[in-house]
């Protein structure tokens, strides 16, 4: 592997590391999660490098020599595939984060519109606000495919809500209530359309999250990259300079481990709704939404959540 190829790999790894740092910021559990996900591969690489590196200088294996251009070409191919894979994975993660940013904004907008257009109805405002908060938590729990929390379950039971898609049903309840208050308060068409448009945007955001959740990376693509990394690891000791055994072993470990770390980072980022420490911080965002809605409804300052919990899952 030439200097330019190694430099390309290092630059790509640094970019990926920056992305990973944003994912795991202020969250020690995510660092532990990442280490646990790669330690088996790293242990295998270290074992292979030590065994082959030793045999390569003391047995007939020293006669095996793979031309450096072959190793360089293989390393370049793997590096390019990993760069492409990492970029795609980060795009998915970032799209999911942007969608939840839209949910935060539209949740605030919905309650602000309800408060302004229905100024004499605290009960109607409270009902919209409570349902919107439950919708946010229900959506996050549905995307993670975990049982509904006690709070969400209690609300669903209290309001007799049973559906395969609970978040969608909650938005339907928003629309039903909007139709009722339109008649009750004589809401003009312009105001009704504005509120309905906000509900429609929330529905669109939910659909985007479901699309990201249900669209998976081709398994064959992941297997191909993983196979190529191990193929490169297998030939690497025979393509490096044999004059310094220790350096050969260290380079084999470092280069192969870097590839594995980049690959695992891409795998982690490609699924932002898997209830892992590197998820989109949906629970924390839901809490932010709840605090904002309470402030809008009560016109009082609500204490902000702790910064550390922003990136914590449950």
UniProtKB/TrEMBL annotation:
Location within or outside the cell: Cell membrane
Keywords tagged on the record: Cell membrane, Ion transport, Membrane, Transmembrane, Transmembrane helix, Transport
Chief site of localization: membrane
InterPro entries, per database record: YneE/VCCN1/2-like
A Pfam short name: Bestrophin_2
Membrane topology category: Multi-pass membrane protein
Transmembrane segments: 31-52, 64-84, 221-238, 244-262
Family: Belongs to the anion channel-forming bestrophin (TC 1.A.46) family.
Protein name (record): Bestrophin, RFP-TM, chloride channel
Gene source species: Flavobacterium limi
Lineage of the species this protein comes from: Bacteria, Pseudomonadati, Bacteroidota, Flavobacteriia, Flavobacteriales
Name of the gene this protein is made from: yneE
């Amino acid at each position: 592997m030439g200097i330019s190829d190694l430099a390309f790999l290092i630059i790509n790894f640094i970019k990926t590391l920056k992305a990973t740092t944003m994912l795991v910021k202020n969250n020690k559990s995510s660092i532990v999660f990442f280490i646990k996900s790669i330690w088996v591969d790293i242990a295998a690489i270290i074992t292979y490098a030590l065994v082959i590196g030793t045999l390569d200088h003391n047995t007939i294996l020293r006669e095996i020599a793979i031309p450096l251009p072959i190793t360089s070409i293989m390393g370049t191919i793997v590096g390019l595939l990993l760069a492409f894979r990492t970029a795609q994975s980060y795009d998915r993660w970032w799209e999911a984060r942007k969608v939840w940013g839209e949910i935060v904004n539209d949740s605030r907008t919905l309650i602000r519109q309800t408060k302004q257009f229905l100024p004499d109805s605290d009960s109607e405002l409270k009902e919209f606000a409570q349902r919107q908060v439950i919708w946010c938590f229900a959506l996050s729990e549905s995307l993670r495919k975990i049982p509904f929390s006690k709070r969400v379950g209690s609300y669903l039971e209290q309001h007799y809500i049973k559906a395969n898609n609970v978040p969608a049903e909650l938005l339907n309840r928003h629309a039903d209530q909007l139709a009722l208050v339109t008649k009750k308060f004589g809401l003009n068409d312009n105001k009704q359309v504005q509120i309905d448009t906000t509900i429609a945007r929330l529905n669109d955001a939910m659909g985007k999250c479901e699309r990201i959740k249900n669209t998976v990376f081709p398994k064959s693509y992941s297997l191909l990259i993983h196979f190529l990394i191990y193929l490169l690891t297998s030939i690497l000791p025979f393509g490096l300079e044999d004059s310094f055994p220790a350096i050969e072993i260290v380079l084999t470990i470092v280069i192969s481990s870097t590839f594995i770390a980049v690959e695992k980072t891409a795998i982690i980022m490609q699924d932002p709704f898997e209830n892992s420490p590197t998820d989109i911080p949906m629970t924390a965002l839901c809490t932010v939404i709840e605090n904002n809605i309470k402030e809008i409804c009560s016109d009082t300052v609500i204490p902000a959540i702790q910064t550390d919990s922003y990136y914590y899952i449950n």
